[in-house]
């Protein structure tokens, strides 16, 4: 998978050299390039922003540096060839679609992702209009809050996406039983010692009975999701729930498909 990140603070992305993402880069599983937007400016001050038309607070990122940087990405990857699919241009924005685990799975299957880290009041809207001719443009938000720039959001999205690329995670089974993989939050986990500061682990985990452990974990997923993210239960397909699931949900006061 090829990933390009464009930012005026490339040092912000240094964390992508660490841990499993950094190892995947060194192993050649991820071809990740970070570009400094200021490197494509043409004035002595390396200007990337200006005052907004119509007035208002803050500054807006100029269109020409972004166009130059994005053209450079296309040229360096030969992605402009007709026979290759258009890269996906992800633009972090509180006005974008919400990034979810399902989004991460979708993007993990793409060949080339480009991330545009905006700053100040955002990027001149004409850049997105222009980019639609060359990229699949996806403004995207981590949630209903505002950050100072797109770098933090890109770090989160790249990690969420890249860990799904085959070979990045050593044990692929660990991807199956985690939060949001099946629409529910993950069950609680424990390790040694079995008794810690007068707090024992659930007895079923010591039983060695795999079916009972599996059932307990599923029940805990349902209980935790109902307590912390009840909105997720509304999205469950009742056809995927067995009788025991339904009994636990009824015990919790929930009915699949019913508005709460």
UniProtKB/TrEMBL annotation:
Superkingdom field: Bacteria
Compartments where found: Cytoplasm
Catalytic activity: guanosine(37) in tRNA + S-adenosyl-L-methionine = N(1)-methylguanosine(37) in tRNA + S-adenosyl-L-homocysteine + H(+)
The keyword Membrane belongs to this UniProt entry's keyword annotation: no
Ranges for domain tRNA methyltransferase TRMD/TRM10-type: 1-235
Role noted for this protein: Specifically methylates guanosine-37 in various tRNAs.
UniProt name for this protein: tRNA (guanine-N(1)-)-methyltransferase
Name of encoding gene: trmD
